[in-house]
């Protein structure tokens, strides 16, 4: 047995059921022989992004796995890895590698060395008898500490050699979770109890840890409102009377109100990274920062209390400590009515945008129809980069965990199509929908064919406005004189040509039927693209509380 065959058996034993790939890697055949399904994408970046999407909706025992070839295949994968690393998503990356004699000879590309800034760990198998050890370390890194991509590079000459029988034993590493000290938990609980206007800031770590029920329990116990980050969106049901909604570079009116007015902020499962695509924490707030990676605390934001550990264990400990201070009854500060009043005022201001009947459609009308017509508890929705992200995050109502996938500390156009294919593999019972612009479609539109061919049905909504709407004033001469940022396309027609179903929407009356038809077609196993003729609309209007 060589390393390729052995790794395939390890993946099978670890519960891997499918891998994304493109275009070639000896492991593709090896995993297929083990009954693991390979799905070939149209480019390496898409394959990485699909593995990312699968990891985001899976429990902590399952990870996306992606295979690509050495050299150009590995070089083309960097964008997808950067996105997963920025958003703290665990995926196992298994690139082919050059023979050892060629590793450090220019211009050969060594993935395990070149990718160091966009992965958590990277190893090279240098001897066949080290295969089990390297794979054990890889799965340990996937299961413990900060989620992120983990790489095992497979040199062609090494991995084709037989492994001695005495080196075939592999022991799967168990997940290791840890919690903050009792004294730090007590200090944090006391500060939350004594606060006049506390706010809970929840990030994707709550989803990763499966801690959504604990988050809800603590919020209700303290009668404290909850704001979720863009990656944390769906960690807290946005129908809940304590929900302020979610935010990235744009957010809701109630969220801005509490972010300005709170005195104690408890950030859990969030890195608080300073980013153009995130809200800010005011320096005047008393900050309790709970996160799994110690390096995130005091990185960009000064913390008054730092709690390093698993979000679920940490929230459980804080709940116990708070109950020790106030008892088991939920507090009543009148927060519910304050939040609902703020939300009603903000929504009334935006209702004309959301219900606008003009043609071409307003993107906000598209989002409104998604709220009205999608079964949110049985769907997964995501945005793409740019204006669609800024427009949908505050307004689409996330309900159950993973009913929305927010992403974007790095913002790769086209991420949403392969992301949804991976998410559909993780939750095949859900309708998976991505909202993207026509610019983003150009980056990954061919993976509509992947979805149709692989019979992994998703629905893609393309906001077809013929222009890069995120940059309204960036290059006026280039735009007017040379057409820079203008584009054109019949995206429904392209979808049909690639084996999917295409639906064209040109007025608001057609949007709801299109979504309903897409839901039916997805259930029949058909991939759908809805080509919506929209107008370019600024996502950063003054009313938007950016």
Percent of sequence in beta strands: 15-25%
- Main β-sheet, in a few words? 6 strands, parallel
Shape: globular
The stretches of 5 or more residues where confidence is low (pLDDT under 50) are 540-546
Helices, by number, come to: 22
User: What is the rounded distance between the termini?
Assistant: 58 Å
**Mean pLDDT across all amino acids:** 95
If strands are numbered along the chain, what order do they take across the biggest sheet? 2-1-3-4-6-5
Secondary structural class: alpha/beta
At a glance:
The chain is α/β, with parallel strands linked by helices. The chain has helices spanning 3-13, 26-33, 44-57, 72-75, 78-86, 111-114, 131-143, 156-159, 182-194, 204-208, 212-222, 253-261, 311-326, 335-354, 363-373, 387-392, 416-426, 438-444, 447-453, 476-482, 491-497, 511-523, and strands spanning 18-21, 37-40, 64-68, 91-97, 121-124, 150-155, 198-202, 226-229, 243-247, 264-268, 286-291, 305-308, 379-383, 404-405, 431-437, 459-464, 501-505, 528-533.
In words, what does this structure look like?
The protein has 22 helices and 18 strands. The chain has 546 residues and is α/β, with parallel strands linked by helices. It has a 6-stranded parallel sheet with strand order 2-1-3-4-6-5, with helices on both faces. It has a 6-stranded parallel sheet with strand order 9-8-7-10-11-12, with helices on both faces. The chain has a 6-stranded parallel sheet with strand order 14-13-15-16-18-17, with helices on both faces. The termini are far apart.
